[in-house]
Design goal:
The protein is α+β, with helices and mostly antiparallel strands and 451 residues long. It has helices at residues 81-96, 127-137, 148-160, 182-192, 209-218, 232-244, 350-354, 358-381, 385-402, 405-411, 433-441, and strands at residues 11-17, 21-22, 28-38, 64-71, 102-108, 112-116, 123-124, 166-173, 197-203, 223-226, 248-256, 262-270, 274-275, 281-282, 287-295, 298-307, 316-327, 333-346, 415-419, 424-427. The strands form 4 sheets. Strands 4, 5, 6, 7, 8, 9 and 10 form a 7-stranded mixed beta sheet that branches. A 6-stranded mixed beta sheet has the order 2-18-17-11-15-14. Strand 9, helix 5 and strand 10 (223-226) form a beta-alpha-beta unit. Helix 8 runs antiparallel to helix 9. The longest helix is centred in the last third of the chain and has 24 residues, at 358-381.
């Protein structure tokens, strides 16, 4: 549980963007909710380059515990640069730990093994334990299969032994999860959800995108591809630096709605698209909590859609109240002191009721963009060239109209763009596997609307 009395704890704010006007009989209310945390004081305070440790002032930041899970399956030796890259990346992550953080390193195959410190415990980061951990990494060797769920369960056991406010994992894999069933991995993710957050990375091109993104999604972390093992160290250092900047864990978006109203969906739409609707836990008779994970100095956007009872012209109502809380084990919650209001006003002004709010329109398009990419790539793999061309053409059109230049560049490696505005494309005859996997992995990354 976070210590909210600290002077350097971040301050949260909530801003709501919507067109509150509905036509007569209108029931659906849409709003973009921007949540911003500022003033935490630790984001970006760690090192800026791999293997270059910058001592962190004692007492800065909340109590934290971190588990680094490294794939040590046999495929990590093909080519050998993958295993070397994994060792270097883990060393870079260890170097980025601030003093006082509890940590461990786990080697993952078809079983999970404690690499450092061992004995079912966590080490406390300082100059000595960082060096000991890096020495232990030299013993890492490749051999065996892949069962990601066993790695996560060991991480959960070790992290839960620490009296830490922030619990975070970093997971690296290079292969498919072939030594446990999809049901076993899903059960593990369900068991670990809400207990720690986790960033997941796939190295090379022999892993399954849906498995890595499922880990990150369930555990409210990030997912990405590192096609070249040489890029792992810098990526791990950045991930750990971000983790060290987290100040408040287990933040939930609490949505109150009046009697007769129904929440149709709640989804994060920036910096990535993440469906939260099914993760709701009931707080009171009319309020539910949606998990958002850990926060440092950052801002995120959420799309809230509520169906309200119809009302007469000229009437208005509070469609939803959005606040931020940290739930407690006893069922109560600590409120973070920020809230926003979603309104509904019925009008016969056609221009007012049919105008689509710019933020809502933008993020509706970004969510469609992610879906179009994923569907297009699935159709391409299935051999449906016409279907794939249509969906990826729509993705190109949406990426261009929304200003998502990064996604447009990734799409251009999979299709030849004839007319971006019209969505006219041709599938490339040959596509590098790394390019296709990068597009799929990063399909949910969005650009923010200019407010």
């Amino acid at each position: 549980m976070a210590n909210f009395s600290k002077s350097n704890a971040p301050r949260f704010s909530v801003d709501v963007y919507q067109n509150e006007y509905l036509p007569e009989g209108g029931r659906e209310v849409n709003a973009i909710v921007t949540v911003t945390a500022t003033g935490g004081g630790t984001a970006g305070s760690a090192v800026t380059a791999p293997h270059q440790y910058a001592p962190h002032a004692p007492g800065r930041g909340p109590a934290a515990a971190v588990a680094v899970m490294v794939d040590c399956s046999g495929s990590m030796d093909y080519p050998p640069t993958k295993m070397r890259g994994a060792r270097d990346a883990t060393a870079a992550a260890v170097d980025t730990l601030r003093d006082g953080v509890r940590f461990c390193v786990i080697g993952g195959t078809h079983v999970a093994k404690e690499v450092y410190p061992g004995g079912g415990r966590l080490a406390v980061a300082d100059a000595t334990t960082r060096e000991q951990a890096k020495l232990a990494l030299r013993r890492l060797s490749a051999g065996g299969g892949t069962a990601i769920g066993t790695w996560l369960r060991l991480a959960d056991r070790l992290l839960s032994s620490a009296d830490a406010e922030i619990r975070h994992g970093i997971l690296l894999t290079d292969g498919r999860n072939e030594h446990e069933s999809p049901e076993d991995l899903r059960a593990t993710l369900d068991a670990c959800a809400g207990r720690f957050t986790c960033d997941a990375r796939g190295v090379g091109t022999d892993w399954e995108v849906k498995e890595v993104t499922a880990v990150a999604s369930a555990l409210l972390g990030t997912a990405d591809i590192v096609a070249d093992p040489a890029g792992l160290a810098a990526d791990f250092a950045r991930m750990m630096e971000t983790a060290m900047g987290k100040e408040v864990a287990d933040v939930a978006l609490r949505l109150w709605t009046p009697a007769g109203s129904t929440v149709k969906f709640v989804k994060q739409v920036a910096p990535t698209v993440e469906e939260l609707t099914g993760r709701r836990t009931e707080a009171t008779a009319r309020a539910g909590d949606y998990p958002t994970g850990s926060w440092g100095d950052e801002s995120r956007d959420y799309h809230v859609c509520v169906e309200v009872p119809p009302a007469g012209l000229g009437q208005e109502m509070l469609a939803a109240r959005v606040s931020l809380v940290v739930p407690r084990p006893d069922g109560t919650a600590h409120t973070l002191g920020a809230q926003g209001l979603v309104r509904a006003v019925w009008t016969d002004d056609l221009a007012a009721s049919t105008s689509l709010n710019a933020q809502v329109a933008h993020y509706t398009g970004q969510a469609e963009l992610a879906q179009a990419i994923q569907e297009g790539l699935e159709l391409r793999k299935a051999g449906d060239r016409d279907g794939a061309t249509a969906r990826l053409g729509r993705a190109v059109q949406l990426a261009g109209s929304s200003g998502n230049a990064d996604t447009a560049k990734l799409l251009a490696k999979v299709v030849d763009v004839v007319d971006a505005a019209a969505g006219t494309v041709r599938l490339k005859a040959k596509v590098e596997e790394a390019d296709e996997m990068t597009l799929e992995t990063r399909s949910t990354k969005t650009v923010r609307v200019k407010k």
